[in-house]
Design goal:
Helix content is 55%, strand content 9%. By secondary structure, it is of the alpha/beta class. The protein has two domains: 75 residues, Winged helix-like DNA-binding domain superfamily/Winged helix DNA-binding domain (Arc Repressor Mutant, subunit A, Orthogonal Bundle), CATH 1.10.10; 170 residues, Rossmann fold (3-Layer(aba) Sandwich). It has a five-stranded parallel sheet, with helices on both faces. α8 crosses α12.
């Protein structure tokens, strides 16, 4: 699978001058549609010059703007594919008794972590380990089990962790207790869920720090997120795989536990005592 434009940006944004970095941030926040507009429109939205946009595109490895837009159009087509369309595409046959899905899944994990920096992990851990923050987790139709799994672990090692379930109207009621110290960790992969987008926008208006777990095609929630983990999810199947995102979640759980070593050990001991009683 070709490297996505978001992955290219993640790899190179630290080397970009301010104007190109601004273009990258605007593209991620309006992905991919702003990149499908004219150079002039993209430049106006980013508040930079047209030559800056062209230098940005060149830095990503494209010879010209049309090549860049062709890649974006391919990504948009992939983003919109339904399971029905993917099931109609014949996948590779088994080789040596090993399913190609296994190979693709292992590669997804490797590629996902290649684009998640140590600095990003450290910053996300700091948000999740902040004792003054409330941590709220929610996911979509297929990704909410990841949110529930992560919430179950975080609840053991720190207080004020909440997993949102039930109807969207109940989620909105929780917003009243969410503010600038708090963190929303949200899982959303293609086909992106409108209820999650609406909720994340309202949380952003209240100053909540959002961590988004999404795919390489980027949920629209990225425009509201402080941190975006763009995991590889495509496998030779009608269904996307959340395995790479699950491993990132487990990595954060382990690092938060380590960061809160004394507190988490105390809570675990107390929980064991309560269970034993």
């Amino acid at each position: 699978m070709a490297t996505s434009i978001v992955e290219l940006i993640t790899d190179r944004i630290e080397t970009m001058p301010p104007g190109e970095r601004r273009a990258a941030q605007v593209l991620v926040a309006n992905y991919p549609l702003i990149g499908l507009k004219t150079v002039a429109d993209f430049a106006a939205k980013a508040g930079v010059s047209a030559p800056t946009i062209l230098r940005f595109v060149s830095r990503l490895g494209y010879q010209n703007y049309p090549d860049f837009q062709a890649h974006l159009q391919e990504e948009l087509a992939a983003q919109l594919q339904s399971p029905l369309v993917r099931s109609a595409t014949p996948g590779p046959s088994r080789k040596g008794g090993v399913s190609p899905i296994v190979d693709a899944t292992v590669e997804n994990i490797r590629e996902t972590f290649r684009h998640v920096s140590d600095q990003q992990v450290t910053e996300m851990v700091s948000l999740l380990a902040n004792p003054r923050a409330r941590i709220t987790l929610v996911g979509g139709r297929f990704t909410d089990p990841l949110a529930r799994y992560m919430a179950a672990h975080l609840t053991i090692i720190r207080p004020n962790v909440f997993h949102l379930t039930g109807q969207e109207s109940n989620w909105r009621d929780r917003l009243i207790d969410m503010g600038k110290r708090d963190v929303l960790l949200i899982f959303d992969i293609r086909r992106y869920q409108e209820s999650l987008i609406r909720f994340s926008e309202k949380a952003d208006r209240r100053g909540v720090h959002t961590i988004l777990f999404t795919d390489q095609w980027l949920s629209p929630i990225a425009r509201f997120a402080r941190h975006v983990v763009a995991g590889r999810t495509a496998v030779p199947s009608a269904w996307d795989s959340s395995t790479a995102l699950f491993v990132v979640a487990e990595t954060l759980i382990a690092e938060v536990t380590r960061r809160l070593e004394a507190e988490s050990a105390r809570r675990i001991r107390e929980m064991e005592d309560l269970r034993g009683g």
